[in-house]
Every structure is written in structure tokens, then in C-alpha cells.
NAD-dependent protein deacylase
Amino acid sequence: MPAHPVDPALVEAARAARRVVVFSGAGMSAESGIPTFRDARTGLWERFAPEQLASPEGWARDSGLVWAWYQWRTGLVRLVQPNAGHRAVAEWARHAHVQIVTQNVDDLHERAGSEVAAHLHGSLFSPRCSACGTAHPSDGGLDVEPTGPITPPRCTHCGGSVRPGAVWFGESLPTDAWERAENAVDACDLMVVVGTSGVVYPAAGLPLRAAESGTTVVEINPQPTDLTPYLQHSWRTTAAEGLPALVT
Ligand code: BV8
Ligand code: ZN
């Protein structure tokens, strides 16, 4: 039984919705065992704030440390499984028009069987050359937490350093992904916002854009967030409990 039983009106809204957007953040993957940005950090990482590592300044300061962090995170994702929330969204898309717009850089939606319309903040699995942009295959990351910096690989095309495929703080979002996200949000009649603190822009502006246009927006999060005051429904439950109950 979910911690907070679902409001039957939400189940009805989900059933009646013709075009759904699921907007996910790090909390979507928490029950798979992937720490969110706000979880307490341990080991090598406890003395670094993500904004220090997920930024061009962090890369310029110590690309080996940043590469090690992403290699560890890539390996962690590879070793875990999609949770019941990811699977419920994939099931929903089998009988309704559901588009996923995610801030997450993991591939758990895809591994649950979903297509993702937009990875707004890039992906762990698309490293690219920091100089010429050439895509390089991910080597699957590390099975253990690194104890220090790891020298990033060299670009096979120009010899530059290969960087993680994530969008860092201070970097623009991929234009094509942003446009797909805006189009999906403008066309939907229900937006389900799962596991995001709603603090990172411009992504966090998308639920507000939907709410302002009169679209029904449902937030699934065990905590209130910066978005809560602006959304019609905020359900204090988790992704893996709430989504299966919503998607009957
Ligand atoms: C840009 C990839 C401009 C990297 C990420 C002031 C106002 C507005 C904007 C700014 C500002 N100051 C600075 C900015 C810009 C900045 C920004 O928004 N900063 C914030 C901190 C204020 N934004 C940017 O820099 C963006 N780019 O603005 O470019 C520009 C324009 C032109 C030219 C140049 C530049 C780029 C931002 C992208 C950063 N990259 N990710 C990586 O992964 O390493 S963002 C990263 O952090 C995540 O993607 C996520 O979106 C975000 C927040 O992390 P978390 O809080 O952990 O995750 P989340 O928000 O999802 O929160 C977890 C939630 O889950 C919690 O609410 C929790 O309660 C809940 N939860 C926990 N367990 C569960 C759960 N929910 C459900 N079920 C559970 N089981
Ligand atoms: Zn290159």
C-alpha cells in the first residue's frame, strides 16, 4: 500500500489523459539505488558539492577528478536496475501517448522499455571530445568507487580530452532536446513531475509553463519542493510507489 494512498481523482485524470508528459529528476532513480544530488555524499565525494564537479570550472580545475566522478556514477548506473516507477511509465506508454522529459543522465527509463523524448541534461553514456566534440563510446564506468582522479581518455580524432556527456552548470541545454521538451509540454493535457527539487533552470520552468497554461500538473515527491506552491496536485509519495498506483 503506498505511503499516501492515491487520490482517485488523480487516477481518473491519468486514465482520461490523452497526451501525457512525465518529467523526471534524480528522485526517479533513487529507489534503484542512485543517490540524488541532495543525498549526503560519502567517501571521496563528501568534500565536493556537485556544482563544483558538474561545471566547466571544475573540469578546468581537475579534469581527472571530474572524470573519476562520472566513471563511478556510470558504473553505479550499470550495476542497478530500473525500479517499479520506471516500469510503470513504460507500461503507461503502451496504452497512452506518454512522452518522457528527464533531467537525469542515467539510462534507467530506456532500460525499463521507454523511449525518452528529451534528456535535458545529457547522458552518462555519451562522452565526447572536449575539443572537437567527437562522440566516444562509454566504457561502462567503474565497478568500485575511485580513490582519486583518473586521467580522461584522449580523443581518437584530435587527441583532445574526452569529457562526460552531461550538461554542466553554466552550459546551455541541447537545443534539440529543449525544443522537443517545450513542444511536448505545450501539447500535453497532463504533466506528472517525479522526483525533482525544481531548483535547476531552465528545466524547472517546464512544470510552471504547463501549470500557467492550465494543464493539470501532478507532483510525486515525498518532500515539498520549490514547485509545490504552483502545482495543482502534490502527492507525498515516491516514484516506485506512486507511479504504479497512478497508472492502473
Ligand atoms: C543554464 C547533469 C544558461 C550533470 C545537471 C538563478 C536562477 C536561475 C538559473 C540559475 C541561477 N543561477 C544559476 C543558474 C543557472 C543554473 C541553475 O539553475 N542553478 C541552480 C543551482 C540555481 N542552470 C544552469 O546552469 C543550466 N544552464 O542555465 O545555461 C546559459 C545560457 C546561455 C549560455 C550559457 C549558459 C544547466 C543546468 C544543468 C546542470 N546539470 N545534471 C550531472 O548529472 O552531473 S542538473 C542536476 O541537478 C540534475 O540533473 C537535477 O536536475 C539537478 C538537481 O539535483 P537533485 O536535487 O538531486 O535532483 P533533483 O532536483 O531531481 O532532486 C531530488 C528530488 O527527488 C528531491 O526533491 C527529493 O525529495 C526527491 N526524491 C528523493 N527520493 C525520491 C524522490 N522523489 C520520488 N521518489 C523518491 N524515491
Ligand atoms: Zn577531438
